[in-house]
Design brief:
Distance between the termini: 25 Å
Largest sheet: 2 strands, antiparallel
Number of strands: 2
Strand order of the largest sheet: 1-2
Structural class: mainly alpha
Strand content: under 5%
């Protein structure tokens, strides 16, 4: 059934790109309006603060009741030392994991794109490609982190109690979901929304990635400048992986391996306070060194993607455009209509429904019949 105000001759414009676009250009569609991207980004950030804040706070209350966090520990939050106990840790993971359905919901509501298009330019999460990313991205990054840990003195002695085993299981279950949530938000909807506001696709992608990486850095609430530099550069590396592969699979692997490698020793020793220590002096220039390998992994992953034939651009909306109107040709010898009586429309009238507007309609648009 056609919506009121629409006719079969002028169906709704496609919600998907009608020209080949990379992952960060996927909101450049005939249906896009600049205010939609801005509002979607704002709602995602508000949703992140509310959902994660509620669940993390609930976990913190549980930790205080159980004695895992003392009221005195709360005073250190002003200096970048965030009080974290087991329940706070799991609550934070669950809150971040909920960014996946939130980003999908906003993409559907504001841009008309079904959830699969949030994952990749193929319209789905590419599980086979995820397996290749585990080999190409996950294993080298895991090996580097293990070597770095051993060079710093190795792993502390674990404390294997029933509660530790329970926390280990919850960590293995929720951390990949937490990482996916951050990727859907900070490498997915946010940079896409910002990028579509800029007329030039390349400049838009750059603006979107930088702004989203700054927000990713701010979300970690670190007071140490070197840690802030690490979070920002880490976001840039994962954005590059997303850009060169056409989806979130590689960045989800990179993020998950990074977090699990750092969190498992923390869980095995029940040293949750070290997770929240992001005060001045907790970082150093050395934290940036591993990211050199991260840049190399971007090039390696792109090479493997090419050889595997994995798409990084697509124009799925092209198939959704209505076919061109048939033009009747008068029979031979028939007289043509007098000049001025032609019923052929001006090109601007027929293409207006599929224009991509990054700015609100101006006076010239309002004067159109």
């Amino acid at each position: 059934m056609t919506r009121p105000g629409r006719t079969a001759l002028f169906p709704p414009p496609p919600a998907l790109p009608v020209r080949s676009q990379d992952y960060y250009g996927f909101l450049r569609t005939p249906r896009y309006r600049w205010w939609k991207g801005l509002l979607a980004a704002l709602l995602l950030l508000v949703g992140f603060l509310v959902v994660d804040g509620v669940l993390a706070t609930a976990g913190l209350i549980v930790d205080i009741v159980l004695g895992a966090v003392s009221p005195q520990d709360l005073r250190g939050a002003a200096n970048g030392v965030i009080p974290i106990g087991p329940a706070t840790f799991i609550g934070n993971n669950l809150g971040l994991a909920l960014l996946v359905p939130l980003a999908m919901l906003l993409a559907r509501a504001f841009f008309g794109q079904r959830p699969g298009w949030s994952a990749s330019v193929a319209g789905r999460f590419r599980w086979r490609w995820l397996g290749w990313c585990l080999l190409v991205v996950g294993l080298p990054w895991f090996a580097l982190l293990m070597i770095s840990t051993m060079a710093d003195g190795g792993f502390p002695t674990p404390v294997l109690t029933p509660s530790v085993w329970l926390m280990l299981g919850l960590t293995l279950l929720t951390t990949p979901l937490q990482c996916a949530g951050e990727e859907w938000a900070f490498r997915g909807l946010l940079p896409r929304s910002f990028a579509a506001m800029v007329p030039h696709p390349g400049a838009g992608a750059a603006v979107g990635v930088v702004l989203a990486s700054l927000l990713f850095m701010a979300a970690h609430a670190a007071a140490d400048p070197w840690l802030n530099a690490f979070y920002f550069c880490f976001g840039l590396v994962m954005s590059a992986l997303t850009w060169r592969t056409g989806g979130l699979e590689a960045s989800v692997v990179f993020h998950t391996v990074n977090n699990l490698t750092g969190l498992i020793p923390v869980v095995l020793t029940a040293d949750y306070a070290s997770i929240g220590d992001r005060g001045v002096g907790s970082g150093s220039p050395a934290v940036l060194i591993p990211l050199v390998l991260g840049v190399g992994l971007v090039f390696l992953t792109d090479l493997v993607r090419r050889r595997r034939g994995v798409a990084r651009t697509a124009a799925p909306g092209l198939d959704l455009l209505p076919p061109p109107a048939a033009v009747s040709v008068p029979p031979a010898g028939a007289s043509l209509p007098p000049a001025g009586d032609s019923e052929i429309q001006e090109p601007g009238d027929t293409l207006g429904a599929y224009e991509h507007r990054d700015q609100p309609p101006g006076p010239a648009d309002e004067q159109r019949p």
